[in-house]
């Protein structure tokens, strides 16, 4: 990988999202100055995005219930397999009282320190105007102060860490549905050993149906997520409580001394068992990533008052069962249930697994849109599945890729025991990266002293690295899967970002200053045709090369020419009334700048409607959209290694067209292309 330069390490905030110009201009710029507008219809002072008032009362209860389904689906299904894997054949750990107490103590403190301590108490504070996730952390670290201003580069390694953490989340999105559905289907073995052969086929059928239904959206079925998980958590708590009542001494496992004794008695084996203990905290990142949907208060309330108690009761119930019947170690979760309740429990577990899967695939869709808006991935087909909720989207390319990946993983690993190693790597890798990024945010945004931020994040980092180290030894047994997936996506992201920066600079160097162009238009008076030309441009300065190309070959200009730039701000959402700026440039030229948040999808029709409200009139049936289309030839200077140039070309050719991405009427679009060496 070639050494990065500052352009690729720029923060992905307020990056241009417009269609790139495609042609070389007929003149070379003689200066770097930009034209001053001769008039302004609206100079909008865009205030930062502010979240609504903290919810209370009924609204808080509704949001907390909904968060059960979206936020806690992944971590909520961990009891299906977590304790079973701790005593699985991989470690050969026997379910003796000392081992049971030790493992339960590790589970209790993992949930307490990592989820309650790290995420619920501290990480949720690092919100980017209400939004969370690794890319939101990146936007916090690299804020851009003014539109079009230069960003402060704090280190390519921070950008790389954030992108790799986001890439690992894609791996998590592939593994979670496979793990959850397999864990639910393995209950068939407890109901009847003869049904074991149906576990994998049924898991594949459920996953195929699940991904096939994604295109219809989650608007209706999503309303069931909260109640389904409410039933699930209530059920697992009741099952666990039944065993705890019979063996209340199991509650002594909250004493950390049992974990210490377990470590001293088992040495390296105790450390390796952390590789399965980490399964109880999978989904911890979802608390942070989904913060923008519900806010901090509902997420914290749901966790502390309901989810965490239900999980702990079930884990301790499984431990009490192992003390009473060590043979139940084959599947302690389903062995909690009486025989008559096995099949109903299997149905509830399957529904919970589907909810957990939906939460992860929806997260993958949202992550993809954010990455596209921030310039780390090429344009893709983003479909809104709800006319009310902005966040409910469907990305066919991601749905297909994740669906195929899930099915291949189920067919390849066959059971949760084999898949556990792959699962742990993705989770612990992302957790470690989040801790490192949080330290930077604490220093530069919270203004914490170095010793304070270092002490807190250092403690969390020790825990994260312990879990990661326990899982890294499983690389050859399946842990390579998320690492390979994450590395592949990471390389694609940085290659796309770097390639676009090189291409943008090449086009910018050939851009004619706007004042010189307008002076030339005024002097030459080219023929003007009726109507409006909307020229999509990724910069807010100079003349788009596509416009020069059009004027050179067609020898005409429209009566009205709109230079339209769509910018992505470093905020999740930009309110509608603060989205569009219109500037009159003279000679029938106007510059329109539209600002979108990185959680929003641009719509040119909406932009022009808002511009009309600001005094800029253009009739849809008399409007032509001029777009550029580049044909890239990777033969230029070696600013990228050849294989990365080839990758960039492939990604560029498969990107969704600007016409579709920006919602342009296809019968009003004119594309002008050119060959570009880079």
Top-tier CATH class of the largest domain = Mainly Alpha
What kind of assembly state do the chains in view correspond to?
single chain
Shape: elongated
Arithmetic mean of pLDDT? 80
Layout of helices and strands:
Elements: E1 15-16, E2 39-42, H1 57-70, H2 73-76, H3 82-86, H4 97-122, H5 134-141, H6 156-185, H7 187-191, H8 199-212, H9 222-246, H10 256-266, H11 268-277, H12 284-289, H13 291-294, H14 296-324, H15 342-373, E3 383-384, E4 393-394, H16 396-413, H17 416-444, H18 450-472, H19 480-509, H20 514-524, E5 527-536, H21 545-554, E6 556-568, E7 580-586, E8 589-596, H22 604-613, E9 623-633, H23 642-654, H24 658-661, E10 669-677
Parallel strand pairs: 5-6, 5-9, 6-8, 9-10
Antiparallel strand pairs: 1-6, 2-7, 3-4, 7-8
Which tags fit this structure?
678 residues; alpha/beta; Amino acid/polyamine transporter I; disordered N terminus
Give a written overview of the molecule.
It is a single chain. The chain is built from 24 helices and ten strands. It is an alpha/beta fold. It folds into two domains: 6-35 and 498-677, no CATH class; 57-143 and 153-471, Amino acid/polyamine transporter I, CATH 1.20.1740. Strands 1, 2, 5, 6, 7, 8, 9 and 10 form an eight-stranded mixed beta sheet that branches. It has a two-stranded antiparallel sheet with strand order 3-4. Helix 9 runs parallel beside helix 14 and helix 17 packs across helix 19 (480-509). The protein starts with 14 loop residues before the first strand and ends with a strand.
